[in-house]
Amino acid sequence: MKLFKFAKTFSRDEEGAVTVDWVVLTAAIVGLGIAVLTTVGGGVMDLGNAIGSDLSTTNTTDWGALTGGDS
Q: How many domains does the chain have?
């Protein structure tokens, strides 16, 4: 009988329910962040590599011809 009384008391006890809600909400936000980073990460990496490649092949002497000054 003690087990049933304990189970009944435990099921009615709401202490800590807010903590559980916050833990679930935080886990959902972290999971969503990881999903976004996984989805977008490859494209951002490719874009960064393309920008780096373009910058490494840019000839800075062309800027003087555009502005009319010496470079």
A: 1
